[in-house]
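Researcher: Structure for this, please.
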Amino acid sequence: METAVSGAAEFYLGLETGGTKAVATVLDHDLNVRATQEAARPAGATAQDTVNQLITLGRTVLAAAGVQGAPAAIGWGFGGPVDRTRNRPAFNFHEPGWDTLARDPATQIGGALGAPVFVENDCNVAGLAEAHLGAGSPDGLTFYMTLGSGVGGGIIWQGRILTSGPMGEGEIGHMKIVPAGAQCPCGQHGCVEAYCSGWGVGERAVESIAARTERTPLMETLLQAEPRRRAALLFAAWPGDAFAREQGKAFLNHLADAVANVGLLLAPSRLVLGGGLAQLPWLVAELTPRVESRLPALMRGHMQIRTAQLGSASVPVGAALHARQYLRTT
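Model: Predicted structure, token format:
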């Protein structure tokens, strides 16, 4: 049983909201995880539903950690662009209502849980966690890229989130890699997210199936599957199924184009891949030579591509770490 501790002992609450789940984690002053709670995000949930869910999760996880009173600060890793000038979520392509909430969501959460809330993009805080506690490094530049329900990026420079604009940076998911390509939820065509996210992989597979006259059992399974499960079902058949190999190679080549551009532009010492698709056991081994082949000879061998070590904990842990850094700076 946890020993009850005072909120004054400097505990930090990290929150995460993404396409499919909400998570809350408590870190102590030594960056040890004291407790974690996770809840599914129901389809059709609104922005206010998410705020209410985070408040409930926050209370539950603080009690599980034995924290009496309020945490020192709360970090929130939000799955979309963040308006830093207003310290609030700006927009989410998969969940409506963030731009029209009548009451400021950070104020709602902070008021309910009794601590200041610092909002940041989920990829940025995940990268922060990996730089300090995972596959990245607090020295030099680490680029974090998530491959999940969306595709995003975070730039960590000397152990802190690199911030260069009020709406964020590192938005690799909305770089165009296919001229006049498939439509992305952002409204553009040909974005990385339309080809390398979980939903993007699934949609491209369905388009490919629709153009064929003959269908295999795997193709039929994909057509009948819930859209969010299609990528997992497809890649579970890699490399034994010809259609899975074909779609997997297309995914890898598009991803290699994007990662090579990061290498050329930022020259990170480490590029860390997180999110559900990053857990594919063959991903790094298949991706690395493709990326190297897209770089000039003199730039090869300088960027290590690694799988995130913190798994699903990276965003809430990074959010708590962000709050800790922000509170101490201010």
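Researcher: Any notable elements?
Model: DSSP finds ten helices and 14 strands in the chain. The longest strand covers residues 33-40.
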